[in-house]
């Protein structure tokens, strides 16, 4: 099995889209991620997976905390920006929640303290203990087979 085959196979698992943010030296750092999952209810734990070579790996490690914004179906452009697909610099008007920068109008904002880390292959798994949560109504931004999808329709969007 080659890397491309494995990546294609993993792309067949539909996911939501998140933006992971943290603060370091009074500067907001962020990245788009679909490698996110809940781990435990008691205590409330979630997991994010960050590439070993990603700048965000260093930022989360140094700050010891992170926020997760689960994007809504109208936030594809925000996902693209934090994935580095939009090269222009933007002045993002963050929602400050529990002292952390989060993406406004997201379906969910979570703030977390790093509870544990595990290096697994070429990624670091950060298990975060959830310190606060904010939930709003809406439809999720979904990702499947390398494309954004509307969960309410069978056709792919942009």
Specify the biggest β-sheet: 7 strands, antiparallel
**Number of helical stretches of at least 4 residues:** 3
Task: Tell me, rounded to a whole number, the average pLDDT.
Answer: 91
- Tell me the CATH topology: Pnp Oxidase, Chain A
- End-to-end distance, in Å? 30 Å
**Overall number of strands:** 12
Over the alpha carbons, how many angstroms does the gyration radius reach? 15 Å
Biggest sheet strand order reads 3-2-6-9-10-5-4
Shape assignment? globular
**Name of the level-1 CATH class:** Mainly Beta
The secondary-structure element order is HEEEEEHEHEEEEEE
Helix content: 10-25%
Question: Can you tell me the number of structural domains?
Answer: 1
Kindly name the structural category.
Answer: alpha+beta
Second rung of CATH, namely the architecture: Roll
Regarding quaternary structure, what we see is single chain
Outline the low-pLDDT stretches. none
Q: What distinguishing features does this structure have?
A:
globular, 3 helices, 158 residues, alpha+beta, single chain, seven-stranded antiparallel β-sheet, three-stranded antiparallel β-sheet, Pnp Oxidase, Chain A, 12 strands
General description of the model:
It is globular and about 40 Å long. The chain has a single domain, classed as Pnp Oxidase, Chain A, CATH 2.30.110. The longest helix has 9 residues, at 55-63. The strands form 3 sheets. Strands 3-2-6-9-10-5-4 form a 7-stranded antiparallel sheet. A 3-stranded antiparallel sheet has the order 1-11-12, with no helix packed on it. A two-stranded antiparallel ribbon has the order 7-8. It contains 3 helices and 12 strands. With 158 residues, the chain is of the alpha+beta class. It is 15% helix and 46% strand. It starts with a helix and ends in a 9-residue tail after the last strand.
